[in-house]
């Protein structure tokens, strides 16, 4: 499972704008992460993992 798919699945019913605002990135950046066009910096990986209540390794480094 690719990272983008995991991020979309975890986002659920929330909008990209809501999540982006909550974690402090632009909607455009979050969209690129979800389309696997860009890999977030380590700091953003940590924020995303905390936001979704999962481990960084689980979110970004496991299939």
Order of helices and strands: HHHHH
Proportion of strand residues: under 5%
Give me the Rg, rounded: 10 Å
Number of DSSP-assigned strands? 0
Task: List low-confidence stretches.
Answer: none
- From the N-terminal CA to the C-terminal CA, the straight-line distance is 5 Å
Roughly what is the average pLDDT, rounded to an integer? 96
Q: What is the overall number of helices?
A: 5
Structural classification: mainly alpha
Amount of helix: 55-70%
Main β-sheet description: none
**General form:** globular
Any key phrases for this structure?
63 residues, single chain, mainly alpha, globular
Give a structural overview.
The protein is 65% helix and 0% strand. By secondary structure, the protein is mostly helical. The mean pLDDT is 96.
Topology summary:
Blueprint: H1 3-11, H2 16-23, H3 27-34, H4 42-52, H5 56-60
């Amino acid at each position: 499972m690719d990272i983008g798919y995991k991020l979309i699945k975890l986002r659920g019913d929330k909008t990209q704008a809501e999540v982006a605002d909550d974690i402090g990135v632009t909607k455009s950046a979050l969209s690129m992460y979800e389309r696997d066009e860009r890999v977030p910096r380590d700091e953003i990986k940590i924020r995303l993992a905390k936001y979704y209540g999962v481990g960084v390794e689980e979110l970004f480094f496991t299939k």
